[in-house]
């Protein structure tokens, strides 16, 4: 039996790429860097660099919206924490509690599996760090494995939300930030 075909790779032309540095409270650090890229199918391209200048905090976030369509739909987004020394990572332990929400958006069939969509939001004033998603049984709350996620271990800035897809459906979606209490919604 051969594996199911994946998404078809194609040439991306004049795609916008952006990078922003953020403080742990979500505030901007410096200006947004941007570039337009032509990326051949299944290849990579260099857009810009983001140096670690002397004026930056010892620990900060680098949000790379690495690729968008010409219409503005984000194709790839990554958040990294950057630090000058291992000791600077201790600042993560001092983050204020994040305040998350999870809203089940519904189910959909994709091929031979049923998926659930949920929106995870940060309604607090602190960055929701490394928010881990998990699918749980509706009764008992046991974790369901294996689970496929469209995204996981999210960094959500204050006021930000993200829609995620998980399979299988019919369970509870749980979001648990490093710096806060877990929240769940039935799917």
From TrEMBL:
**Which BP terms from GO are recorded?**
carbohydrate metabolic process
Q: Which InterPro entries match?
A: Beta-gal/glucu_dom_sf, EBDG/EBM, Ig-like_fold, Ig_GlcNase
Q: Which GO terms describe its molecular function?
A: hydrolase activity
Which Pfam families has this protein been placed in? Ig_GlcNase (PF18368)
Indicate whether Hydrolase appears among the record's keywords.
yes
Looking at the record's lineage, which domain of life comes first? Answer: Bacteria
Q: Which UniProt keywords apply?
A: Hydrolase
> Region Disordered: what ranges?
1-20
Cite the Exo-beta-D-glucosaminidase Ig-fold domain residue spans from the record.
78-167
Q: PANTHER family recorded for this chain? A: MANNOSYLGLYCOPROTEIN ENDO-BETA-MANNOSIDASE
Name assigned to this protein = Glycoside hydrolase family 2 protein
């Amino acid at each position: 039996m051969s594996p199911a075909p994946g998404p078809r790779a194609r040439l991306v032309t004049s795609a916008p790429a952006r990078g922003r540095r953020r403080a742990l409270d979500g505030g901007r650090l410096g200006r947004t860097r941007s570039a337009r890229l032509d990326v051949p199918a299944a290849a990579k391209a260099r857009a810009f660099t983001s140096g670690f200048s002397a004026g930056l905090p010892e620990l900060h976030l680098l949000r790379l919206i690495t690729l968008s369509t010409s219409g503005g739909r984000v194709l790839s987004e990554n958040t990294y924490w950057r630090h000058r020394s291992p000791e600077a990572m201790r600042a993560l332990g001092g983050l204020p509690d994040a305040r998350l929400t999870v809203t089940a958006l519904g189910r959909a069939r994709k091929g031979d599996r049923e998926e659930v969509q949920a929106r995870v939001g940060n309604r607090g004033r602190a960055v929701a760090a490394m928010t881990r998603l998990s699918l749980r049984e509706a009764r008992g709350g046991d974790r369901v494995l294996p689970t496929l996620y469209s995204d996981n271990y999210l960094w959500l800035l204050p006021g930000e939300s993200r829609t995620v897809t998980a399979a299988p459906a019919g369970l509870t979606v749980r979001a648990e930030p490093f710096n806060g209490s877990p929240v769940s919604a039935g799917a």
